[in-house]
Amino acid sequence: MSMACYQCGCQLSEQDYCTACGADVSLYKKILRLSNRYYNEGLEKATVRDLTGAVDCLEQSLKLNSRNVEARNLLGLVYYEIGECTAAMSEWILSMNVEPKKNVASDYIERIQNNPSRYDNIRQTMKKFNQALEYCYQGSHDLAVIQLKKVLSISPRFVKAHLLLALLFIDNEDWEKARRELTKALNVDKGNTQALRYMQEVDRMLAPDDIEKNDRKKKRDDTIRYQSDNEVIIQPSSLAEGTRSGFSTVLNIVIGLVIGAAAMYFLVMPTAQKEAQHDAQERVDSIASQLDVKTAQIQEMESEIKSLEEAKAKLETELEEYVGNEGKLQVMDQLFAAASVYLDSKDTAQTAEMLEKISEKVKLEETSLDYQALYHSLLGIIGPELAKTYFDAGKVSFQNEDFGSAVENFQKAVYYDPGNAEALMDLGNAYRRGEDEMNARATYNKVIELFPDSEWSRKANQWLGGMDEEMTD
Amino acid sequence: MINFEEELKKFHPSAEVEEIQDYIYNRNATDIAGVFEKMFTKKEEETETEE
């Protein structure tokens, strides 16, 4: 292989310097020689189909001298052989860049570019292989196997696809299938260490004992045994095949259909089921969210109804307070009726009776100021006259020693005329004579408190003193 | 015993035909001969400057 000077580009001789420019090329020539040696080694390995070894050598060669066109072209060819077409094309393109004229790489590239179906196959192979690898990462091994089989139907010499398929079979403990793929890979690349390692594992799993057993079983299967009377007849299966060929064809078709249906069931159906489940889940989620909104609205409306019912009950209570039997309107009507009776007939007794009924039902301090004013005005008008009536009646009762009745009359006399000290004094006396000492004392004390400087006060004190003495005795 | 997960890590996606340009540009094209050339060319230039 010819060498050119790195400085002037002239052809180098056997000397350690350039005969044209005089540059020291001893080390440079060593590097180029080493690159060429790696190329030769790579070529030898490629010749005996140790393509992995060839790739290693050629890569080393190019690391030493990237302008080694022969090494690059051969590397491209080896890549192409093992199915790595993109890598192959890139090597040839780089080679063309170094040596644009009289380069076999241009021929290789043209062959691919001028064959659209081949070019499309390369494209499809790479895409499908990457898809299969993605399936492996996702754990969809069945889909990966299908995809890799498609890849290998397009590019049967794609070693990497054979290896990945073998790995999937090994993972599935499908040792025979794995061995088949590995054998195909090793037919292309005899020195593929990965394939050799997998094959070692497969061989270990398919131990010789098992192989022998399989062989024996196969031999047994090759004969047909049946009993006729007392004799066991052994007939080679090949003889029976002729008679059974029609039946076996039908059977094979049926088995094929069953396998097809099973593949459909196990591969396509789960995907369709997953999609259906996904759609159903989405619908359920959507309905659930709608349900949540509706539930929230219902709860809101229920709480609104509850608050409205409470408000209604409160208003009904208030209304009852106004219009009921003992409501405010009724009480007001009674007061108006009492006023009307007095204005019409001046009947103080009936008016007093009506006012007493009102005072029993109503707490005056809870009524309106106008109501209280009317009540007190009416009471002020009829009070003195009533007080006199009850006072006189009390006197009569007292004289008749009916002290209970006397107490009642004097109480009313005091109620209607609180300034009547005599009536209060007589109430105390009625209590005392009726032997109600506690109320008698309270009433005398009230006389002393309300009318301190009066004759009634002095008398009250006397009675209190007398009662104290009686107690002492 | 072959560990599937570990072995799977050794497989890498193949460069697709549409990505061939990126594939070429992203390659490390440095070689020893190139390094040697650069080194000696620089040395020659320095010698000439000194002279």
List the helices and strands and how they pair.
The complex is a heterodimer of chains A (473) and B (51).
Chain A: H1 26-47, H2 51-64, H3 69-81, H4 85-98, H5 104-113, H6 116-138, H7 141-154, H8 159-171, H9 175-188, H10 193-205, H11 208-221, E1 223-228, E2 231-236, H12 237-323, H13 328-345, H14 348-361, H15 369-399, H16 403-416, H17 421-433, H18 437-450, H19 455-472
Antiparallel strand pairs in A: 1-2
Chain B: H1 4-8, H2 20-25, H3 32-50
Largest sheet of chain A: 2 strands, antiparallel
Q: What is the terminal separation of chain A in angstroms?
A: 161 Å
Oligomer: heterodimer
The radius of gyration over CA of chain B amounts to: 21 Å
**Helical content of chain A (DSSP H or I, runs of 4+):** over 70%
β-sheet strand percentage of chain A: under 5%
The fraction of residues in strands of chain B falls at under 5%
pLDDT < 50 stretches of chain B: none
**Inertia-based shape of chain A:** rod-shaped
Can you list the strand order of the major beta sheet of chain A?
Answer: 1-2
Tell me about this structure:
The complex is a heterodimer of chains A (473) and B (51). In chain A, 79% of the residues lie in helices and 3% in strands. Chain A has 473 residues and is an all-alpha fold. Chain A is rod-shaped, with a radius of gyration of 63 Å. In chain A, 27% of the residues are buried. Chain B is mainly α and 51 residues long. Chain B has one domain. Helix content of chain B is 59%, strand content 0%. Chain B is built from 3 helices and no strands. Chain B has helices spanning 4-8, 20-25, 32-50. The radius of gyration of chain B is 21 Å and the shape is elongated. Chain A binds chain B through residues 6-7, 23-24, 27-28, 31-32, 35, 62-67, 84-87, 89-90, 93-94, 119, 122-123, 126-127, 129-130, 133, 136-137, 160, 163-164, 167, 170-171, 194, 197-198, 201, and chain B through 1-2, 4, 7-8, 10-11, 13-20, 23-24, 27, 29-34, 36-37, 40-41, 44.
